Amino acid sequence: PGLLLVPDFPDGGEPSAERLRRQRVCLERLGRPAAPTDVRGTVQVLGGPGLKEVTVRYTFNEWLSFVDVPAAPLPPDPPAERYGFTLCVPPSLREGSALHFAIRYRSAQGEFWDNNGGRNYTLRCCGCPGGGPAPPAAAPP
């Protein structure tokens, strides 16, 4: 209780057509605010014919281990296809911890990543104002 996952990267808004064309996959947006129990978001991919797979790779331990979760197709927004994802966050996450993630798109055209320009996307676990126990009431004068 009282913790939030706060993006540690600038919110660039909607991915640009140029960025999508160059990378073929882009983080579209994260749900706000990210709760300490799960992180939800959407991804845009520059689709093509054939089978496609979109996954989000994430870690809580600086990449000592990681989890790949599939993203599910959403209604398209031409020329891009859209996918939604949910990352489950362990209850043991503490203030100061970080969740790092990157997005992978595989298709007949190859494998493509959106890893925030090589820095990965990072969410920091922070205390939120008003999220903890109420302060003791002041004694009347």
TrEMBL record:
Coiled coil: none
InterPro entries, per database record: CBM21_dom, CBM21_dom_sf, PP1_regulatory_subunit_3
An MF annotation (GO) of this entry: protein phosphatase 1 binding
Gene3D superfamilies: Carbohydrate binding type-21 domain
Gene Ontology terms: biological process: regulation of glycogen biosynthetic process
Domain CBM21 intervals: 17-124
Alphabetized PROSITE patterns for the sequence: CBM21
One GO CC term on file: protein phosphatase type 1 complex
Domain of life of the source: Eukaryota
Name of the protein in its database record: PP13G phosphatase
Organism per entry: Mionectes macconnelli (McConnell's flycatcher)
